[in-house]
Amino acid sequence: MSADSKHFETVAVRTQTEKTQFLEHSVPMYLTSGFVFEDAEEMRASFAEEKKRNLYSRFSNPNTSEFVDKICKLEGAEDGYAFATGMAAVFSTFAALLDAGDHIVSARSVFGSTHSLFTKYFPKWNIETSYFATNELDTIERLIKPNTKIIFAESPTNPGVDVLDIETLGKIAKKHKILLVIDNCFATPYLQNPIKFGADLVIHSGTKLIDGQGRVLGGVTVGTKELIREIYLFARNTGPALSPFNAWILSKSLETLAVRVDRHSENALKLAEFLEAHPKVNWVKYPFLPSHPHYEIAKRQMKLGGNIVAFEVKNGVEGGKTFFDTIQMCSLSANLGDTRTIVTHPASTTHNKLAKEDKLAVGITDGMVRCSVGLEHIDDILKDIQQSLEKI
Ligand SMILES: *Cc1c(COP(=O)(O)O)cnc(C)c1O
After folding, report:
1. Global pTM?
2. What residue's CA is closest to ligand 1, atom 5?
3. What confidence tens digit (pLDDT) does each residue in 89-107 have?
4. Which of 83, 109, 284, 376 could form a disulfide with 89 if both were Cys (CB 3.0 to 4.6 A apart)?
């Protein structure tokens, strides 16, 4: 239940920021770049932030505000800012809060582009990153230095679906007075609320399960008023704002998030159980499978297991190639969190920039498949994957 004691589903469906002009039941789109003022004094007061209102859609817009407001309520956050993409949210969050010479402590297993930020771009500003393995949280304190500002992690991780104990991370961050930033993309606000476990900021790629239908890109960061203020000022000057059209889509999508993720998770668990018993599969990882190394943490921290299943087919590169070349219904794509089941080969696509040892360190092997389980009937998903596995 959320803070105002309504259930998640109700908050997702019923949150509406403002009464609209014609009392439309469905919130209209406000496709406008700017807003007008009554007179010089109103304009002055608005720019001086004495008056809270929309000025320009790079700063805020009724549609983006509504989307942000909903995510804040669903995550239990004070405030937020919506971005054009998940990566704009990740980059802007770090860029707004870090100075040259600061230090990040991050899980080794992170989204490919986030890894590129840490290894290729942040070093340009003398911002260094130290890494911990997802199953060795006890090594984190040794990595913390006087200039460490942020601990960063995803849970579950992409693509290895490792689960990190966010409460433990929160305690470490608090003890050392540093910020904990969690990319909550795989869990969505429906399955897990990192702020409850001690996170200061939560990031989402709206592109994934929040849109959930493979249509638009978007991202959002939520957290305390004070931190979001810094992020907002950075964003309003640098321009990574979410478009009102995409915000309208994402806000509407949130209304169905719970029912979609329930079914996604039900299908994913069935697929994971099927794969675990299949002779052509070496291993399967899914947070709600008892064989998952972090099953107990997942059960404590998440409502359901989510829609991502990772597994390794037999016969290495050749086996992987056969699997991807013979799949019939499931899509070969790099996206995830769509209604359509998608299979991805992380080693050659999303994580191809990683050196081989870095790939192995985050659990990416040549024969590994990341499956984003969709909303087709589970029997049809199983049938397609079964016929591909048989050809290996
Ligand atoms: C996809 C993804 C992102 C980036 O989101 P975009 O909207 O594609 O920019 C960030 N983190 C995780 C965990 C993701 O899966």
Report:
1. 0.96
2. 86
3. 999 999 999 999 999 999 9
4. 83
